[in-house]
């Protein structure tokens, strides 16, 4: 497979090199032919012994094959003659010349076939075709390989036409690359009659824009019909709308049949094929439009909730106001800011809050990401103390907290709730916060949080103390054989909460199953599939998880082994029953007889 891939790559490289070096052979204004380079091709050789339809094989002094256009005129001459370009013939003749040079591998026969096909197009009713039937491929009624080849050339040339060389470009819209470093578009290319490669240039593109092939290789030269990519660096985009012009240029060619006439009118004119070249140019507009989004949040510094009533202003790098608004309970969204740097300031604070004097700087990028900006306000002359879960950042109720001043005097003591604790009119100075009792399920915080109340009765930073949860408690579930008390593997088990929701499901093994982190409450253990060889347990084992995450003892469910039927039990029971019956009958008969004798004696 590797060798195959290497060969394919090598072929692609060779093809690329070939396309790069191909040059069109442009028609000259005149050609020279030496009479000595001509010799007679006899019809008797190719059509049959009775044929006198002969052609002269001829070429220019440069080796270019030419064909007669007046078959009945004289051809052979001595010396070198000049033939001057006079006009062109239709595209069918050009097709035959281009495709008639390598048909059979015999250059003389190929020349004869091509010459005959050209003449058929020029004069199909000429007397030379009296015994030739192209439709049947026969000469004088007999199948003939040369006639068949002539017919094939003539037939295949019917749809030939001169097509003007062209290049067409089509952009497919820009998309952000996976690493968000480029906006990329694929330009589809369609070429007609292009010789070799075409070259691409860009106009009005942002700095750093590159052109690559579809594999990402940087280049601006491509083979006919090869698509290419335009990649615009995100970091270079300065505007929301970008109009990029892409141009492609190449050399186009149309293979054309040219007639050349000799100065001597008694000699036949000739026709041959050359590439009619022209410069081909085209362009297309690639439009790159981007959308930017900025989310600006005005929040209470103590609760992190959106704070209405603040008047906010956003300015660009030049100090121009681009947006201003009064905050609400929702995040403020600004769309389509031009990529660049901006500042956010507050001019009016919400009622009951201090004015934010900070200037928040932020940058809008063109990579499709959302810029999020937050500005906070602190309440006037209140100190908020937050007790939080260290893993979630949420308020944590149930902690007993103590606040002391710099002299160790207790100022306040409280149990935390689901909102920050608010203390009004604390005197300026240094304070310490400690925890004496941790919330249930959390480790006691041993840190001492220090903070300073400023002269205006506020603190510079939020006062926060955090607790980490205790390790989750483990509940063990045991599935046992009721006859042996050993762990029993292969049972399908489920635990449901008080709402009937499945919170855990598993297949028992040879060890008790561990379940961690069950919330306090009532649960039910059921079995859905019994182990092989055991009856399905129909009991529902109920247990309760206490507030500390534990249960009393281990939760156990038992299974009974299935009863095993002993072969021939039915026959055994039948015999046993019969014997017992006989014994009873015999015993009864004996008692009757004794009673009879006793009565008889009396």
Structural class designation:
alpha+beta
The helix fraction, in percent, is: 10-25%
Helical region count? Answer: 6
Q: What's the story with the biggest beta sheet? A: 9 strands, antiparallel
Strand content: 35-45%
- Tell me the radius of gyration: 51 Å
The coarse overall form would be elongated
Low-confidence stretches: 1-22, 568-578, 591-602
Termini gap: 121 Å
The counted number of beta strands is: 38
- Averaging pLDDT over every residue, what do you get? 88
Total number of distinct structural domains: 6
Structural features, described:
This protein is of the alpha+beta class and 602 residues long. The chain is built from 6 helices and 38 strands. It has 6 domains: 2-156, no CATH class; 166-255 and 275-289, Immunoglobulin-like (Sandwich), CATH 2.60.40; 296-377, Immunoglobulin-like; 382-467, Immunoglobulin-like, CATH 2.60.40; 474-559, Immunoglobulin-like (Sandwich), CATH 2.60.40; 568-596. Strands 1, 2, 3, 4, 5, 12, 14, 16 and 17 form a 9-stranded antiparallel sheet that branches. Strands 9, 10, 11, 13 and 15 form a 5-stranded antiparallel sheet that branches. A hairpin with a 5-residue loop joins strand 3 and strand 4 (65-68). Helix 3 (91-99) runs antiparallel to helix 4. The relative contact order is 0.07.
Question: What's this, in brief?
Answer:
The chain is an alpha+beta fold and 602 residues long. Helix content is 16%, strand content 41%.
């Amino acid at each position: 497979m590797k060798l195959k891939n290497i060969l394919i790559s090598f072929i692609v490289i060779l093809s690329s090199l070939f396309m790069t070096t191909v040059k069109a052979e442009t028609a000259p204004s005149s050609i020279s032919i030496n009479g000595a380079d001509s010799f007679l091709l006899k019809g008797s050789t190719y059509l049959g012994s009775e044929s006198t339809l002969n052609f002269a094989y001829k070429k220019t002094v440069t080796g270019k094959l030419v064909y007669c256009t007046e078959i009945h005129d004289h051809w052979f001459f001595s010396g070198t003659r000049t033939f001057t370009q006079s006009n062109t013939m239709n595209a069918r003749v050009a097709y035959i010349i281009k495709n008639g040079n390598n048909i059979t591998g015999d250059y003389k026969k190929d020349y004869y076939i091509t010459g005959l096909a050209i003449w058929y197009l020029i004069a199909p009713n000429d007397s030379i075709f009296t015994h030739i039937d192209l439709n049947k491929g026969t000469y004088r009624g007999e199948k003939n390989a040369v006639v068949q080849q002539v017919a094939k050339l003539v037939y295949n040339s019917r749809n030939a036409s001169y097509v003007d060389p062209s290049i067409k470009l089509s952009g497919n819209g820009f998309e952000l690359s996976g690493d968000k470093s480029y906006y990329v578009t694929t330009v589809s290319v369609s070429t007609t009659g292009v010789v070799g490669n075409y070259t691409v240039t860009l106009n009005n593109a942002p700095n750093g824009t590159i052109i690559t092939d579809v594999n990402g290789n940087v280049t601006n030269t491509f083979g006919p019909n090869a698509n290419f990519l335009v990649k615009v660096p995100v970091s270079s985009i300065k505007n929301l709308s970008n109009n990029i012009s892409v141009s492609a240029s190449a050399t186009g060619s149309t293979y054309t049949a040219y007639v050349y006439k000799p100065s001597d009118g008694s000699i036949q004119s000739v026709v041959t094929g050359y590439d009619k070249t022209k410069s081909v140019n085209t362009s297309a507009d690639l439009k790159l439009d981007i959308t930017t989004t900025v989310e600006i949040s005005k929040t209470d510094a103590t609760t992190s909730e959106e704070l209405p009533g603040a008047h906010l202003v956003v300015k660009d790098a030049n100090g121009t106001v681009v947006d201003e608004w009064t905050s609400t309970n929702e995040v403020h969204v600004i769309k389509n800011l031009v990529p660049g740097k901006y500042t956010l300031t507050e001019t009016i604070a919400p009622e009951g809050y201090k004015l934010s004097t900070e200037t928040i700087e932020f940058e809008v990028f063109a990579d499709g990401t959302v810029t999020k900006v937050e500005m906070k306000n602190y309440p006037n002359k209140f100190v908020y103390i937050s007790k939080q879960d260290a893993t979630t950042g949420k308020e944590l109720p149930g902690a007993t907290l103590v606040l002391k001043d710099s002299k160790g005097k207790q100022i306040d003591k409280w149990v935390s709730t689901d909102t920050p604790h608010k203390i009004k009119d604390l005197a300026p100075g240094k304070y310490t916060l400690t925890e004496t009792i941790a919330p249930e399920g959390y480790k006691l915080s041993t840190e001492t949080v220090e903070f300073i109340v400023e002269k205006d009765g506020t603190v510079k930073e939020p006062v926060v103390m955090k607790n980490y949860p205790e390790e989750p408690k483990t509940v063990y579930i045991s599935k046992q054989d009721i006859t042996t008390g050993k762990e029993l593997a292969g049972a399908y088990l489920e635990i449901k909460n008080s709402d009937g929701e499945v919170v855990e499901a598993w297949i028992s093994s040879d060890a008790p199953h561990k379940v961690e982190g069950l919330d306090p409450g009532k649960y039910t253990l059921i079995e859905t599939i019994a182990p092989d060889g055991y009856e399905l347990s129909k009991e529902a084992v109920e247990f309760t998880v206490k507030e500390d995450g534990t249960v009393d003892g281990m939760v156990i469910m038992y299974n009974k082994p299935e009863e095993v039927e002993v072969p021939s039990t039915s026959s055994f029971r039948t015999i046993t029953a019969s014997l017992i019956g006989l014994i009873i009958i015999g015993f009864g008969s004996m008692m009757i007889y004794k009673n009879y004798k006793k009565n008889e004696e009396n």
